[in-house]
Specification:
- The complex is a heterodimer.
- By secondary structure, chain A is an all-alpha fold.
- Chain A has a single domain (18-50, 59-196), classed as Up-down Bundle (Four Helix Bundle (Hemerythrin (Met), subunit A)).
- Chain A has seven helices and no strands.
- Chain A starts with 17 loop residues before the first helix and ends with a helix.
- In chain B, helix 5 runs antiparallel to helix 8, helix 10 packs antiparallel against helix 11 and helix 12 (371-394) runs antiparallel to helix 14.
- Chain B contains 17 helices and two strands.
- Chain B has a two-stranded antiparallel ribbon.
- In chain B, a hairpin with a 2-residue loop joins strand 1 (250-251) and strand 2.
- The longest helix of chain B has 37 residues, at 77-113.
- Classes of the chains: A mainly alpha, B mainly alpha.
- At the A-B interface, helix 1 and helix 5 of A face helix 1, helix 7, helix 8 and helix 9 of B.
C-alpha cells in the first residue's frame, strides 16, 4: 500500500482533491503575508506627517496598462484550463503561452518603471512611501517570477503528463491557475493604494 | 507485498537521505532537532558560567573562543549577547518546534490517521531540507565578522537595525525556517483533513492529531507576518529604509542619516503576532503527546475528550488576539492594554480545562508507572507551574514590575523545559519501540528522569525569586552591579551548578538512545503498550506505505476497559467486541 488517495479524484466528505486543499491553505498564508504588509502601509501612513500622493511620483497610465496586462493573463489562464477540460491540448498550449508572455510583459514594464525611478534617484531609502512601494511591488514581482517558472514548466516538460495522466495534469493547471489569480488579485489591491490614493 | 518490493528497489541515498517516506523524514527531523537542542543547551551552560562567576576566565574551554570573544578566557559582553540571542533562536525554532511538529508530527500523524504517507511526500522532503539549510545558516553565522545575531531572539529594532552582519544572516535563516514550516503546515493540514481512514471522523481522531491540526493552522497563519517583518528589517538593513526607524532618532548622540518616519512598535506588533501563537505551536504537540501516553497508561477512557478538543480549537483562535500582552510597557496605551489583558485571561481558561481533564482522567485509573508515564505525570504539575506564573504577567499592572525580569525567564522556561521538553522525552520513550522493535532501558530511564525533574526545579524556581526581587534579564553580570540584586545574587551559582549537573543528567538518556538502537530486538508485539490507536496496528517497524491494507475505523480513540471485552483495550479498527 503506497498509493496516496485523493491525488486526482475528490474525497466524498470534503469535496476536494489534496492539492486543491493544499493550494487554498497556501493562499491563506499568502493573505496573511500581504495582509501584514498592507497593515504596515496603513500604520506608517497614519503615523506620517506628510504622505505624497501616489500619482505625483508614479506613472498612473503605465500602472493602468500593467493592471490590464495582468487581468488579461488571468483570463487566458482560465482559458488554458478550460481547453484541457475540453480535451483541446493545442489550444491549451496557446493560451498558457500567452499567459506566460503577458506575465513577462508585466515584468518588462515594471523594470522600466523601476529604472525610471532609479534614474531620478528615487531609491527605497529616500522616503517611507518609496520604501513601501519598492518592498510591496518587489515582493509581488517575486511572486510573478515564481509563477512564470511554474507555468513555463507546465507549458514545456511538465506537459508530458497530459499523455499519461490527463486528469491529474488538468488538476495541476487548475491549482497553478488559482495561484496566478491570487497574484493578480494582490496587484489589484496594490495598484490603487500605491498609484491612486 | 508491494512493501518488500519497494524497499529493495530504493538505493541508499534515496532511502535514508533524500527520502520521501514520512517516517524517515520524521527521524531526520528528530536527529537534527535533538542535536540543536543539545547545542542550544551548551550555549546556555556557557552563559551560566558568566552569570555565576562574572569576570572570571571560563575553565578548560575558555581559550578556544578567541581574543575577540573571550580575551584570556573571560567572556566579553557582546559574546554573552550572541549566546543569549542564539540560545533563544535555536531552542525555539530549531529545537522544540521541529521536534514536536517535524519529528513527532511526521512520525505519528499519518500512522494514527491510517494513511499510507503524508499527502505531499515530496513537499515533506523539501520542508526538511529547507529547515536544515535554515539551521545551518544560523550555525554558519557564528563565523561571520562580529559573530552571530546578538540583539536577542526577538530582534527588536532599532538595536537590530545597527547590529553586525550576523543579524542579516539571522533574517535569511529565519526566512528558510518560515518557508519550511509553511510547507509543513500545508502538508499536515491537507493530510489530516484528506487522508483520514474510512470511519475515522474528526471526533474519533486521537487527541495528538487534534493538537497537530491546530498547531499547523497556527503555523500557517501566524508565521507569514513574521516573514513580512523579516522582509522589512532586511530592507532596513540592506537598502537603508526606515520602516523601524522613527524620525529624529539619535544613535550615540548623533542624528541618523535616514529618512525616518518608521515605527519601532510596528516590529513588536508583527513579531508578537507570530510570537504568541508560537507558544501554542510549542505547546499543543506536547499536550498531544502526553494525552496519548496518559490515556494509554490509565487503562480507562480519557475524561472529557470532546471538551479538550473544543478547548484547543478555542485556544487556537484566541491565540491570535493576545499578542500585545508582551508589550504593556511600550506605551501603546491603557485602552489597548485593557483589551489584551482581558483576552489573555480568557485564553487561560481552555488551557486550564485541558490540564483539568488530564488530571481528572487519572482518578480511578489503574496507572502504569513506566518511563513515558513518569515524564507525563511530571509534565502536568510542571506545565501548571509555568501557566500559573504567567497570570501576573498577563495583567498589565503587575507586569509593569515583572516585565523583563528573571521572573519572565523562570515562567516561560517552566512551560518549555520541564513542560514541553518532558513531553518530548515521554514521546521518545513511548514511540521508540514502534520504529525500532526495541524498548529503551528502564534503569537508565529512571537515572534520566529523576535528576532531570529535580534539577529543572533547582534551575527555574530561583529565577522566579530573583525576578520578584527585581533582577532584570539579559544582564551580562547577572545583576552583580545592582544594589537591589545583592540579596538574591548568591542564587546564580546554585542555578549554574544545577544547570551543569542537568547536562550530566542527560548522559543516561543519550546512552540509552544510542544503545537501544543497536541492542538485540526485545519487543515481539506490534503493540507493546496495548494501545488502541492505529499507529500500533502496523508491522514493526512500519514498512513503506505503513499498512498492509488500509484500516477501517469503527470506534473512538481511547476505548480502554470496555465492558464485555476480553482485553482491557479495544483498538480503533476492531469491529466487534469479542
Amino acid at each position: 500500500m503506497d498509493v496516496i488517495p485523493y491525488t486526482v479524484e475528490e474525497r466524498k466528505d470534503t469535496g476536494v482533491f489534496n492539492a486543491k486543499l493544499g493550494i487554498w491553505l497556501f493562499l491563506a498564508s499568502e493573505v496573511m503575508l500581504f495582509g501584514a504588509l498592507f497593515s504596515t502601509y496603513v500604520i506608517l501612513r497614519i503615523g506620517a506627517e506628510h504622505w505624497p500622493h501616489g500619482a505625483s511620483l508614479l506613472n498612473v497610465p503605465i500602472g493602468t496598462f500593467n493592471t490590464a496586462v495582468l487581468i488579461t493573463s488571468s483570463v487566458t489562464m482560465v482559458f488554458s484550463w478550460t481547453s484541457l477540460k475540453e480535451n483541446n491540448f493545442a489550444r491549451f498550449k496557446n493560451f498558457l503561452g500567452i499567459t506566460i508572455l503577458l506575465a513577462l510583459l508585466f515584468l518588462v514594464v515594471k523594470s522600466f518603471e523601476y529604472g525610471a525611478k532609479f534614474e531620478h534617484h528615487h531609491f527605497p531609502k529616500e522616503s517611507t512611501f518609496l520604501a513601501i512601494y519598492f518592498t510591496l511591488t518587489g515582493l509581488h514581482a517575486l511572486h510573478i517570477i515564481g509563477g512564470i517558472v511554474v507555468l513555463t514548466y507546465f507549458w514545456g516538460p511538465g506537459s508530458k503528463m497530459w499523455e499519461t495522466q490527463a486528469d491529474r495534469f488538468t488538476n495541476r493547471i487548475e491549482i497553478v491557475g488559482l495561484y496566478w489569480h491570487f497574484v493578480d488579485l494582490v496587484w489589484i489591491f496594490l495598484f490603487p493604494i500605491l498609484y491612486l490614493l | 507485498m508491494s512493501n518488500e518490493h519497494h524497499e529493495h528497489k530504493l538505493p541508499f541515498w534515496q532511502k535514508y537521505l533524500f527520502s520521501t517516506d514520512h517516517k524517515t523524514i520524521g527521524i531526520q527531523y528528530g536527529v537534527t532537532s535533538l542535536s540543536f537542542l543539545l547545542f542550544g543547551f551548551f550555549l546556555m551552560m556557557l552563559m551560566r558560567w558568566q552569570l555565576a562567576y562574572p569576570e572570571q576566565a571560563i575553565p578548560f574551554i575558555g581559550k578556544f573562543f578567541g581574543e575577540d570573544r573571550a580575551p584570556g578566557g573571560v567572556m566579553v559582553p557582546t559574546f554573552y549577547n550572541e549566546l543569549g540571542a542564539m540560545h533563544g533562536t535555536i531552542m525555539v525554532f530549531l529545537g522544540v518546534v521541529p521536534m514536536g511538529v517535524g519529528c513527532f508530527g511526521n512520525l505519528i500523524v499519518p500512522l494514527q490517521l491510517g494513511a499510507p504517507d503524508m499527502a505531499f511526500p515530496k513537499l515533506n522532503m523539501a520542508s526538511y531540507w529547507v529547515f536544515l539549510v535554515g539551521g545551518l545558516t544560523m550555525l554558519v553565522s557564528f563565523f561571520l565578522p562580529g559573530g552571530a545575531a546578538n540583539s536577542g531572539w526577538t530582534a527588536y529594532p532599532p538595536l537590530a537595525n545597527f547590529a553586525t552582519i550576523g543579524q542579516t544572516v539571522w533574517i535569511l535563516g529565519m526566512v528558510f525556517l518560515i518557508t519550511s514550516s509553511l510547507l509543513g503546515a500545508v502538508n499536515f493540514l491537507t493530510t489530516i483533513i484528506q487522508l483520514r481512514a474510512e470511519g475515522l471522523t474528526f471526533m474519533r481522531l486521537p487527541f495528538f492529531v487534534w493538537g497537530q491540526l491546530i498547531t499547523s493552522l497556527l503555523l500557517l497563519l501566524a508565521f507569514p507576518p513574521l516573514e513580512a517583518a523579516g522582509i522589512l528589517q532586511l530592507m532596513d538593513r540592506v537598502a537603508h529604509t526606515s520602516f523601524f526607524l522613527p524620525s529624529g532618532l539619535l544613535v550615540s548622540g548623533q542624528p541618523l542619516e535616514v529618512s525616518g518616519g518608521g515605527s519601532v512598535l510596528l516590529w513588536q506588533h508583527l513579531f508578537w503576532f507570530l510570537g504568541h501563537p508560537e507558544v501554542y505551536v510549542i505547546l499543543l504537540p506536547a499536550i498531544g503527546i502526553v494525552t496519548e501516553i496518559l490515556a494509554n497508561n490509565i487503562r480507562k477512557p480519557l475524561w472529557g475528550y470532546k471538551t479538550m478538543v473544543y478547548s484547543v480549537i478555542f485556544l487556537g483562535f484566541m491565540s491570535f488576539i493576545v499578542w500585545a500582552h508582551h508589550m504593556y510597557l511600550t506605551g501603546m496605551g491603557t485602552a489597548i492594554s485593557a483589551f489584551f489583558q482581558a483576552t489573555t485571561m480568557i485564553i487561560s481558561i481552555p488551557s486550564v480545562i485541558v490540564l483539568t481533564c488530564l488530571a481528572i482522567s487519572l482518578w480511578g485509573g489503574s496507572i502504569r508507572f513506566n518511563i513515558p508515564m513518569l515524564f507525563t505525570l511530571a509534565f502536568i504539575p510542571m506545565f501548571a507551574m509555568g501557566g500559573l506564573t504567567g497570570l501576573p504577567l498577563g495583567l498589565a499592572a503587575p507586569d509593569v514590575y515583572l516585565h523583563d525580569t528573571y521572573y519572565v525567564i523562570g515562567h516561560f522556561h517552566y512551560v518549555v523545559a520541564p513542560g514541553v521538553i518532558f513531553a518530548l522525552f515521554a514521546g521518545i520513550y513511548y514511540w521508540f519501540p514502534k520504529f525500532t522493535g526495541r524498548k529503551m532501558n528502564d534503569l537508565l530511564g529512571h537515572l534520566h528522569f529523576w535528576p532531570t525533574l529535580v534539577l529543572m526545579n533547582c534551575i527555574f524556581f530561583p529565577m522566579l525569586l530573583q525576578g520578584l526581587a527585581g533582577v532584570s534579564r539579559r544582564l551580562y553580570d547577572g545583576g552583580a552591579t545592582y544594589a537591589h540584586a545583592q540579596g538574591v545574587l548568591h542564587m546564580n551559582e546554585f542555578v549554574s551548578i544545577s544547570a551543569w549537573i542537568l547536562g550530566l543528567a542527560q548522559i543516561p538518556f543519550i546512552l540509552n538512545l544510542l544503545w537501544s538502537m543497536v541492542k538485540p530486538k526485545n519487543v515481539d508485539s506490534d503493540n507493546p503498550w496495548q494501545s488502541t490507536t492505529l499507529e500500533w496496528q502496523t508491522p514493526t517497524p512500519p514498512g513503506h506505505g505503513n499498512f498492509k491494507e488500509l484500516p477501517v475505523v469503527y470506534r473512538g480513540p481511547y476505548e480502554y476497559s470496555v465492558p464485555g471485552a476480553s482485553e482491557d483495550f479495544t483498538p480503533q479498527n476492531i469491529k466487534d467486541i469479542k
